[in-house]
Amino acid sequence: MPETLPIRLLHFADLHIGMENFGQIDPDTGVNQRVLDFIQRLRDIVDTALDREADLVIFAGDAFKTRDPNPTYQRELARQVMRLARAGVPIVLLVGNHDIPIIANRASSVDIFRTLEVPNVIVGRKEELHRIQTRRGVIQVGTAPWPQRARLLQMDESRTLNAEQLDQLLAATVLDELQHLARQVDPGLPAVLAGHFTVSGARFGSERSVMIGQDVVINLSALNLPAWDYVALGHIHKHQELNAGNYPPVVYSGSLERIDFGEEHEPKGFCWVNVLRGETTWEFVSVPARRFVTIDADATRDGDTPTEAVLRAIERHDVRNAVVRARVTLLQAQDAAFRPRDIERAIRERGARFFVGIQKQIQREIRSRIGVRNAESLTPTELLERYFISKGTPQDRIESLMELAGRIVRNNESRQ
Q1: Do residues 144 and 254 share a domain?
Q2: Owning domain of residue 152
Q3: How many other CB atoms are there within 10 angstroms of residue 173's CB atom?
Q4: What is the pTM (predicted TM-score) of this model?
Q5: What is the mean pLDDT of the chain?
Q6: Inside any domain, residue 370
């Protein structure tokens, strides 16, 4: 009997073409520079799929930032999808919450591929089990797109329900659909489930800041089924496995590009999966996403030269080709001497791609009437000396007064 070879699957998600955070219009293309970053990540994915000879690509939803992307963004997605299709690599395009229209019967932003019947392109618009022929054999892919509340509103029994009851009904409906998909799986063939939703226990990323639609949480137990060899998830930007140590792997690939500083330290990439019935293995592969760098500087001890403290902090960071911000702590008295333009110039000269700006935190100095911080830490005689100084008392007068004060203290102590 010939050896069964694993089917090589590339799983990625949450592309969000159209994110323009921190970028400006590129004069050569007329497209926002940050949008070009997201488009480049898609090119990288397709290059990798072709170089590694992937048998199947699953995109687990959210192609664009909005439900109605402009034609330029749609063109860039189509170019890369067609590269795979022409190379004979099937690709599943799952419909996410950023792709799906508000009205249930309207077309999604990726439905054009289904309308044109593009070979090797499967649009996951509904809960359905697809049997896909790849170069290494047949694989089953169940598609579970973003749960659309609008579908429920078409049902007579849902019209009298409140929002909480609708959420419960929607979650129950999705659970039924997932169980139905699992029952359809041929146990003799490898099977993968592609879903776009929140799973209980998942750790959120910055997707909450760009959320479209109301979230519905699916229990992990609905996915942890023997029918599946791998569960490819989208929707949450933080890469994570939810079923560690168990089978099947239930994995959010995470997004390909950082959208804000909340994702500064998160790796970005895709999952390379070797799908074999009952023996699937996978790995996370990082991509060169645009780096985000925060420069923190405390200038409160630098007196009249707070700018120099920040410049020293800049030298300790690699800001080349990064999105950069500075966060500076200053005393109120230092603010007038602080030179923001020098900070911006230094960051740009060190090769930053995008400079976001400077966040200043001004510390209000708390002083006692005698000009001393933490007066409670001083002895009574020390406080008295500081009082004389604050009043401008001549030094020789201070010395004689302190000598008298000392005698008084000693006499008082001897009487006790």
Answers
A1: yes
A2: 7-286
A3: 17
A4: 0.81
A5: 87
A6: no
